[in-house]
Amino acid sequence: MSTKTSNESTKERPTFSPELLDELLGDSKTAQELLGSSGLIKELSKALLDRMLEGEMSHHLGYEKYESIGKNSGNSRNGKSKKTLKGEFGELDLAVPRDRQANFEPVLIPKYETRFAEFDQKIISLYARGMSDRDITAQLQDLYGVEVSHGLISQVVSEVMSEVSAWQNRALDEVYPIVYFDALVVKVKQEKQVIKKHLYLALAINLEGDKELLGMWLAESEGAKFWLGVMNELRNRGLNDMFIACVDGLSGFPEAVEATFPHTLTQLCIVHMVRNSLRFVPWKARKEVARDLKTIYQAASAEQAEQALLDFSEKWDGKYPMIAQSWWRQWDNLMTFFGFPPEIRKVIYTTNAIESLNSSFRRVLKTKGSFPNDEAVFKLIYLSFKNIAKKWTRPIANWPLALNQFAILFPDRLPTLR
Question: Do 374 and 341 belong together in one domain?
Fold first, then answer.
Protein backbone atom coordinates (compact mmCIF):
# COMPACT_ATOMS: atom_id res chain seq x y z
CA MET A 1 0.00 0.00 0.00
CA SER A 2 1.43 3.40 -0.96
CA THR A 3 2.17 5.85 1.85
CA LYS A 4 2.92 8.84 -0.37
CA THR A 5 1.05 12.02 0.42
CA SER A 6 -0.83 13.98 -2.21
CA ASN A 7 1.89 16.67 -2.10
CA GLU A 8 4.61 14.08 -2.79
CA SER A 9 2.60 12.69 -5.69
CA THR A 10 2.20 16.18 -7.10
CA LYS A 11 5.97 16.77 -6.97
CA GLU A 12 6.60 13.62 -8.96
CA ARG A 13 4.31 14.59 -11.82
CA PRO A 14 6.07 15.51 -15.10
CA THR A 15 6.97 19.17 -15.40
CA PHE A 16 5.85 19.17 -19.05
CA SER A 17 2.68 17.64 -20.37
CA PRO A 18 3.00 14.84 -22.94
CA GLU A 19 1.19 17.03 -25.46
CA LEU A 20 3.78 19.80 -25.05
CA LEU A 21 6.65 17.35 -25.37
CA ASP A 22 5.10 15.89 -28.54
CA GLU A 23 4.78 19.36 -29.98
CA LEU A 24 8.40 20.22 -29.16
CA LEU A 25 9.79 16.98 -30.54
CA GLY A 26 7.86 17.27 -33.81
CA ASP A 27 9.50 15.00 -36.37
CA SER A 28 12.74 14.52 -34.39
CA LYS A 29 13.63 10.84 -34.38
CA THR A 30 17.36 10.63 -33.58
CA ALA A 31 19.62 11.71 -30.73
CA GLN A 32 21.50 13.93 -33.18
CA GLU A 33 18.29 15.79 -34.08
CA LEU A 34 17.67 16.31 -30.39
CA LEU A 35 21.13 16.92 -28.94
CA GLY A 36 23.31 17.79 -31.94
CA SER A 37 24.92 21.14 -32.76
CA SER A 38 21.72 22.20 -34.60
CA GLY A 39 19.34 20.07 -32.56
CA LEU A 40 16.18 20.83 -30.64
CA ILE A 41 17.90 21.37 -27.28
CA LYS A 42 20.11 24.10 -28.72
CA GLU A 43 17.15 25.79 -30.42
CA LEU A 44 15.15 25.58 -27.21
CA SER A 45 18.06 27.03 -25.19
CA LYS A 46 18.27 29.98 -27.60
CA ALA A 47 14.51 30.57 -27.45
CA LEU A 48 14.48 30.49 -23.65
CA LEU A 49 17.47 32.82 -23.33
CA ASP A 50 15.92 35.29 -25.81
CA ARG A 51 12.65 35.19 -23.86
CA MET A 52 14.44 35.77 -20.54
CA LEU A 53 16.34 38.74 -21.98
CA GLU A 54 13.05 40.21 -23.15
CA GLY A 55 11.72 39.71 -19.62
CA GLU A 56 14.69 41.57 -18.18
CA MET A 57 14.06 44.46 -20.57
CA SER A 58 10.39 44.62 -19.52
CA HIS A 59 11.44 44.74 -15.89
CA HIS A 60 14.00 47.46 -16.66
CA LEU A 61 11.46 49.64 -18.49
CA GLY A 62 8.58 48.90 -16.15
CA TYR A 63 6.15 47.72 -18.82
CA GLU A 64 5.64 44.84 -21.25
CA LYS A 65 6.28 45.04 -24.94
CA TYR A 66 3.55 46.96 -26.88
CA GLU A 67 1.80 48.14 -23.66
CA SER A 68 0.29 51.59 -23.99
CA ILE A 69 1.80 52.79 -20.69
CA GLY A 70 5.14 52.80 -22.44
CA LYS A 71 4.21 55.79 -24.61
CA ASN A 72 5.99 58.98 -23.57
CA SER A 73 7.56 57.13 -20.63
CA GLY A 74 10.99 58.54 -21.35
CA ASN A 75 12.54 55.27 -22.43
CA SER A 76 11.58 52.46 -24.78
CA ARG A 77 12.92 49.50 -26.70
CA ASN A 78 15.38 50.28 -29.45
CA GLY A 79 15.89 47.12 -31.48
CA LYS A 80 18.34 44.33 -30.72
CA SER A 81 22.01 43.56 -31.03
CA LYS A 82 23.54 40.23 -31.93
CA LYS A 83 25.67 38.41 -29.41
CA THR A 84 27.38 35.04 -29.74
CA LEU A 85 27.57 33.08 -26.49
CA LYS A 86 29.85 30.09 -25.92
CA GLY A 87 28.87 27.27 -23.59
CA GLU A 88 28.50 23.52 -23.27
CA PHE A 89 25.75 23.78 -25.87
CA GLY A 90 28.24 25.09 -28.42
CA GLU A 91 27.71 28.60 -29.80
CA LEU A 92 24.39 30.44 -29.61
CA ASP A 93 23.53 33.56 -31.56
CA LEU A 94 21.34 35.62 -29.25
CA ALA A 95 19.34 38.78 -29.86
CA VAL A 96 19.97 41.12 -26.91
CA PRO A 97 17.36 43.92 -26.63
CA ARG A 98 18.49 47.57 -26.42
CA ASP A 99 16.81 50.63 -24.93
CA ARG A 100 16.97 54.20 -26.23
CA GLN A 101 18.77 55.52 -23.14
CA ALA A 102 21.37 52.75 -23.51
CA ASN A 103 21.40 51.97 -19.80
CA PHE A 104 19.95 48.46 -19.95
CA GLU A 105 22.46 45.95 -18.52
CA PRO A 106 21.29 42.32 -18.63
CA VAL A 107 21.86 40.24 -15.48
CA LEU A 108 21.47 36.90 -17.25
CA ILE A 109 24.29 37.65 -19.71
CA PRO A 110 26.24 40.72 -18.56
CA LYS A 111 27.74 43.13 -21.06
CA TYR A 112 31.03 42.00 -22.60
CA GLU A 113 30.47 38.42 -21.43
CA THR A 114 30.75 35.92 -24.25
CA ARG A 115 30.78 32.70 -22.19
CA PHE A 116 28.77 31.13 -19.45
CA ALA A 117 30.68 30.75 -16.15
CA GLU A 118 30.17 26.99 -16.40
CA PHE A 119 32.13 27.03 -19.65
CA ASP A 120 35.08 28.71 -17.94
CA GLN A 121 34.89 26.08 -15.22
CA LYS A 122 35.11 23.38 -17.88
CA ILE A 123 38.31 24.96 -19.23
CA ILE A 124 39.76 25.21 -15.72
CA SER A 125 38.81 21.61 -14.95
CA LEU A 126 40.58 20.32 -18.06
CA TYR A 127 43.65 22.45 -17.29
CA ALA A 128 43.74 21.14 -13.70
CA ARG A 129 44.04 17.61 -15.06
CA GLY A 130 47.27 18.53 -16.78
CA MET A 131 45.92 18.92 -20.32
CA SER A 132 47.82 21.23 -22.66
CA ASP A 133 46.17 24.23 -24.33
CA ARG A 134 46.11 22.30 -27.60
CA ASP A 135 44.42 19.31 -25.95
CA ILE A 136 41.84 21.54 -24.26
CA THR A 137 41.03 23.22 -27.57
CA ALA A 138 40.58 19.83 -29.26
CA GLN A 139 38.49 18.48 -26.38
CA LEU A 140 36.07 21.43 -26.41
CA GLN A 141 35.83 21.24 -30.18
CA ASP A 142 34.95 17.54 -30.02
CA LEU A 143 32.49 17.89 -27.16
CA TYR A 144 30.69 21.12 -28.01
CA GLY A 145 31.78 22.15 -31.48
CA VAL A 146 33.25 25.38 -30.07
CA GLU A 147 36.50 26.89 -31.32
CA VAL A 148 38.52 28.13 -28.34
CA SER A 149 41.80 29.97 -28.83
CA HIS A 150 44.96 29.45 -26.77
CA GLY A 151 44.66 33.10 -25.72
CA LEU A 152 41.21 32.52 -24.26
CA ILE A 153 42.41 29.48 -22.30
CA SER A 154 45.34 31.49 -20.94
CA GLN A 155 43.00 34.36 -20.00
CA VAL A 156 40.55 32.08 -18.17
CA VAL A 157 43.27 30.27 -16.24
CA SER A 158 45.14 33.50 -15.42
CA GLU A 159 42.07 34.80 -13.62
CA VAL A 160 42.65 32.02 -11.07
CA MET A 161 45.80 33.72 -9.72
CA SER A 162 43.82 36.14 -7.55
CA GLU A 163 42.11 33.12 -6.02
CA VAL A 164 45.51 31.42 -5.50
CA SER A 165 46.88 34.54 -3.80
CA ALA A 166 43.87 34.80 -1.48
CA TRP A 167 44.19 31.11 -0.61
CA GLN A 168 47.93 31.34 0.08
CA ASN A 169 47.37 34.30 2.41
CA ARG A 170 44.21 33.09 4.18
CA ALA A 171 44.05 32.93 7.96
CA LEU A 172 44.98 29.59 9.53
CA ASP A 173 43.77 27.80 12.64
CA GLU A 174 45.61 28.56 15.84
CA VAL A 175 46.69 24.94 16.39
CA TYR A 176 47.39 21.99 14.09
CA PRO A 177 48.37 18.80 15.93
CA ILE A 178 50.33 17.38 12.97
CA VAL A 179 51.88 19.06 9.92
CA TYR A 180 53.68 17.17 7.14
CA PHE A 181 56.30 18.94 5.00
CA ASP A 182 57.60 17.60 1.70
CA ALA A 183 58.78 18.77 -1.71
CA LEU A 184 58.27 18.13 -5.43
CA VAL A 185 60.74 18.89 -8.21
CA VAL A 186 59.44 21.01 -11.10
CA LYS A 187 61.13 22.47 -14.17
CA VAL A 188 60.73 26.21 -14.67
CA LYS A 189 62.05 28.58 -17.32
CA GLN A 190 64.19 31.31 -15.84
CA GLU A 191 66.40 33.77 -17.74
CA LYS A 192 66.04 31.74 -20.96
CA GLN A 193 67.08 28.53 -19.22
CA VAL A 194 65.08 25.64 -17.79
CA ILE A 195 66.10 24.98 -14.19
CA LYS A 196 64.90 22.63 -11.48
CA LYS A 197 63.05 24.12 -8.55
CA HIS A 198 61.53 22.57 -5.46
CA LEU A 199 57.86 23.08 -4.70
CA TYR A 200 57.45 22.76 -0.93
CA LEU A 201 54.09 21.80 0.54
CA ALA A 202 52.69 21.87 4.07
CA LEU A 203 49.84 19.44 4.69
CA ALA A 204 48.22 19.61 8.12
CA ILE A 205 45.83 17.50 10.16
CA ASN A 206 43.48 19.88 11.98
CA LEU A 207 41.71 19.33 15.30
CA GLU A 208 38.79 17.64 13.50
CA GLY A 209 41.15 15.11 11.89
CA ASP A 210 40.68 16.59 8.41
CA LYS A 211 43.55 17.17 5.99
CA GLU A 212 44.28 20.77 5.06
CA LEU A 213 46.94 22.08 2.69
CA LEU A 214 48.36 25.14 4.43
CA GLY A 215 50.44 26.52 1.58
CA MET A 216 53.06 26.01 -1.12
CA TRP A 217 56.39 27.67 -1.81
CA LEU A 218 58.89 27.56 -4.70
CA ALA A 219 62.65 27.77 -4.23
CA GLU A 220 65.82 26.66 -6.00
CA SER A 221 67.33 25.34 -2.77
CA GLU A 222 66.33 24.80 0.82
CA GLY A 223 68.04 25.66 4.06
CA ALA A 224 67.44 27.15 7.47
CA LYS A 225 66.89 30.66 6.04
CA PHE A 226 64.28 29.44 3.57
CA TRP A 227 62.43 27.40 6.17
CA LEU A 228 62.56 30.26 8.66
CA GLY A 229 60.70 32.39 6.09
CA VAL A 230 58.06 29.65 5.67
CA MET A 231 57.62 29.26 9.43
CA ASN A 232 57.29 33.02 9.93
CA GLU A 233 54.68 33.20 7.16
CA LEU A 234 52.63 30.46 8.83
CA ARG A 235 52.88 32.26 12.16
CA ASN A 236 51.83 35.58 10.60
CA ARG A 237 48.73 33.86 9.20
CA GLY A 238 47.64 32.80 12.68
CA LEU A 239 49.35 29.45 13.36
CA ASN A 240 50.64 29.52 16.93
CA ASP A 241 51.40 25.88 17.58
CA MET A 242 51.89 22.49 15.98
CA PHE A 243 52.62 19.45 18.11
CA ILE A 244 54.53 17.33 15.60
CA ALA A 245 56.18 18.24 12.29
CA CYS A 246 56.71 15.20 10.03
CA VAL A 247 59.37 15.69 7.37
CA ASP A 248 61.60 13.82 4.94
CA GLY A 249 64.99 15.07 6.04
CA LEU A 250 64.53 18.61 4.71
CA SER A 251 67.77 20.57 5.10
CA GLY A 252 67.65 23.33 7.72
CA PHE A 253 64.12 22.46 8.78
CA PRO A 254 64.73 21.46 12.44
CA GLU A 255 66.62 24.69 13.12
CA ALA A 256 63.84 26.84 11.62
CA VAL A 257 61.15 25.03 13.60
CA GLU A 258 63.13 25.41 16.81
CA ALA A 259 63.40 29.17 16.22
CA THR A 260 59.68 29.77 15.55
CA PHE A 261 57.84 26.89 17.23
CA PRO A 262 60.17 25.81 20.06
CA HIS A 263 57.72 23.27 21.52
CA THR A 264 57.18 21.43 18.22
CA LEU A 265 58.66 17.94 17.91
CA THR A 266 60.22 16.85 14.60
CA GLN A 267 59.67 13.33 13.25
CA LEU A 268 61.64 12.16 10.22
CA CYS A 269 59.79 9.81 7.91
CA ILE A 270 60.78 6.21 8.71
CA VAL A 271 59.69 4.93 5.29
CA HIS A 272 61.98 7.41 3.51
CA MET A 273 64.81 6.47 5.87
CA VAL A 274 64.42 2.80 4.99
CA ARG A 275 64.29 3.58 1.25
CA ASN A 276 67.45 5.65 1.46
CA SER A 277 69.19 2.92 3.44
CA LEU A 278 68.37 0.24 0.89
CA ARG A 279 70.03 2.28 -1.85
CA PHE A 280 73.36 1.02 -0.49
CA VAL A 281 72.28 -2.63 -0.65
CA PRO A 282 72.41 -5.03 -3.65
CA TRP A 283 69.07 -6.42 -4.75
CA LYS A 284 69.70 -9.93 -3.40
CA ALA A 285 70.34 -8.71 0.15
CA ARG A 286 67.60 -6.06 0.36
CA LYS A 287 64.91 -8.30 1.82
CA GLU A 288 67.12 -9.38 4.73
CA VAL A 289 68.41 -5.86 5.42
CA ALA A 290 64.86 -4.45 5.32
CA ARG A 291 63.73 -7.12 7.78
CA ASP A 292 66.52 -6.18 10.19
CA LEU A 293 65.72 -2.46 9.88
CA LYS A 294 62.12 -3.27 10.79
CA THR A 295 63.26 -4.52 14.19
CA ILE A 296 64.48 -0.98 14.90
CA TYR A 297 61.40 1.09 14.10
CA GLN A 298 58.90 -1.55 15.23
CA ALA A 299 60.50 -1.94 18.66
CA ALA A 300 58.27 -1.47 21.69
CA SER A 301 60.35 1.38 23.12
CA ALA A 302 63.17 3.77 22.25
CA GLU A 303 65.59 1.74 24.40
CA GLN A 304 64.78 -1.46 22.52
CA ALA A 305 65.07 0.40 19.22
CA GLU A 306 68.52 1.64 20.16
CA GLN A 307 69.63 -1.89 21.01
CA ALA A 308 68.20 -3.13 17.69
CA LEU A 309 70.26 -0.51 15.86
CA LEU A 310 73.39 -1.64 17.73
CA ASP A 311 72.67 -5.23 16.68
CA PHE A 312 72.08 -4.08 13.10
CA SER A 313 75.37 -2.17 13.10
CA GLU A 314 77.31 -5.17 14.39
CA LYS A 315 75.82 -7.40 11.68
CA TRP A 316 75.99 -5.12 8.64
CA ASP A 317 78.69 -2.46 9.18
CA GLY A 318 81.25 -4.68 7.51
CA LYS A 319 79.35 -4.56 4.22
CA TYR A 320 77.16 -1.42 4.39
CA PRO A 321 78.63 0.95 7.03
CA MET A 322 76.73 3.99 5.69
CA ILE A 323 73.33 2.65 6.83
CA ALA A 324 73.85 2.57 10.58
CA GLN A 325 75.83 5.83 10.46
CA SER A 326 72.92 7.64 8.79
CA TRP A 327 70.48 6.32 11.39
CA TRP A 328 72.71 7.40 14.29
CA ARG A 329 73.08 10.91 12.80
CA GLN A 330 69.30 11.35 12.65
CA TRP A 331 68.48 9.32 15.76
CA ASP A 332 66.86 12.07 17.87
CA ASN A 333 64.42 13.07 15.12
CA LEU A 334 63.81 9.50 13.97
CA MET A 335 62.71 8.21 17.35
CA THR A 336 60.30 11.01 18.26
CA PHE A 337 57.28 8.76 17.72
CA PHE A 338 58.41 6.38 20.50
CA GLY A 339 57.34 9.06 22.98
CA PHE A 340 53.71 8.60 21.92
CA PRO A 341 51.12 5.84 22.34
CA PRO A 342 50.18 3.56 19.40
CA GLU A 343 47.18 5.73 18.38
CA ILE A 344 49.50 8.63 17.55
CA ARG A 345 52.39 6.53 16.27
CA LYS A 346 50.19 5.25 13.45
CA VAL A 347 49.55 8.81 12.31
CA ILE A 348 53.11 10.17 12.46
CA TYR A 349 54.97 6.97 11.56
CA THR A 350 55.35 8.06 7.94
CA THR A 351 54.64 11.01 5.66
CA ASN A 352 52.35 8.82 3.55
CA ALA A 353 49.56 11.41 3.84
CA ILE A 354 51.53 14.00 1.91
CA GLU A 355 53.22 11.35 -0.26
CA SER A 356 49.77 10.35 -1.52
CA LEU A 357 49.01 13.99 -2.34
CA ASN A 358 52.34 14.39 -4.11
CA SER A 359 51.71 11.24 -6.12
CA SER A 360 48.53 12.83 -7.50
CA PHE A 361 50.44 16.02 -8.30
CA ARG A 362 53.18 14.08 -10.10
CA ARG A 363 50.63 12.48 -12.42
CA VAL A 364 49.60 15.97 -13.48
CA LEU A 365 53.12 17.38 -13.63
CA LYS A 366 54.42 14.64 -15.92
CA THR A 367 52.17 15.99 -18.68
CA LYS A 368 54.14 19.26 -18.57
CA GLY A 369 57.70 19.42 -19.82
CA SER A 370 58.43 22.72 -18.11
CA PHE A 371 56.63 25.83 -16.92
CA PRO A 372 57.10 29.33 -18.35
CA ASN A 373 57.27 30.88 -14.86
CA ASP A 374 56.58 30.29 -11.16
CA GLU A 375 53.01 31.56 -11.51
CA ALA A 376 52.17 28.77 -13.96
CA VAL A 377 53.32 26.19 -11.39
CA PHE A 378 51.13 27.67 -8.66
CA LYS A 379 48.08 27.79 -10.94
CA LEU A 380 48.31 24.16 -12.01
CA ILE A 381 49.06 22.77 -8.54
CA TYR A 382 46.31 24.85 -6.92
CA LEU A 383 43.69 23.79 -9.46
CA SER A 384 44.80 20.16 -9.19
CA PHE A 385 44.59 20.38 -5.41
CA LYS A 386 40.99 21.61 -5.60
CA ASN A 387 40.08 18.46 -7.53
CA ILE A 388 41.97 16.20 -5.13
CA ALA A 389 40.49 17.81 -2.00
CA LYS A 390 36.97 16.91 -3.15
CA LYS A 391 37.78 13.34 -2.09
CA TRP A 392 38.77 14.38 1.44
CA THR A 393 35.35 13.70 2.88
CA ARG A 394 36.17 12.07 6.20
CA PRO A 395 38.74 12.38 9.02
CA ILE A 396 41.83 10.19 9.01
CA ALA A 397 41.52 6.75 10.62
CA ASN A 398 41.54 6.47 14.44
CA TRP A 399 41.62 10.25 14.86
CA PRO A 400 39.34 10.40 17.96
CA LEU A 401 41.75 8.06 19.77
CA ALA A 402 44.74 10.16 18.71
CA LEU A 403 43.03 13.40 19.76
CA ASN A 404 42.28 11.97 23.21
CA GLN A 405 45.95 11.14 23.60
CA PHE A 406 46.94 14.66 22.53
CA ALA A 407 44.52 16.05 25.12
CA ILE A 408 46.32 14.05 27.81
CA LEU A 409 49.83 14.82 26.60
CA PHE A 410 49.29 18.53 25.77
CA PRO A 411 46.38 19.73 27.93
CA ASP A 412 47.59 23.36 27.95
CA ARG A 413 48.08 23.51 24.18
CA LEU A 414 44.67 22.38 22.92
CA PRO A 415 42.43 25.44 22.46
CA THR A 416 39.25 23.61 23.53
CA LEU A 417 40.80 22.57 26.85
CA ARG A 418 42.22 25.91 27.97
Answer: no
Q: Are residues 45 and 109 in the same domain?
A: yes
> Could you tell me if 58 and 85 lie in one domain?
yes
Do 365 and 251 share a structural domain? yes
Give per-residue pLDDT as tens, 51-77. Answer: 767 777 787 888 888 777 767 777 888
Kindly tell me if the per-residue pLDDT of 36 is higher than 70: no
User: What pLDDT sits at residue 281?
Assistant: 94
- State how far the Cα of 365 lies from the Cα of 360, in Å rounded to an integer: 9
Q: How many helices (H) and strands (E) are present in the chain, helices listed first?
A: 19, 7
The dihedral sign for the CA sequence 389, 391, 397, 403: positive
Domain that includes residue 314, residue range: 270-350
Of 146-155, 185-194, 214-223, the range with the lowest mean pLDDT is 146-155
Query: Under 8 Å CB-to-CB from 179, ≥6 apart: which residues?
Result: 202, 203, 204, 205, 214, 242, 244, 245, 246
222 with 320, same domain: the answer is no
* Lowest mean per-residue pLDDT among 95-104, 240-249, 321-330: 95-104
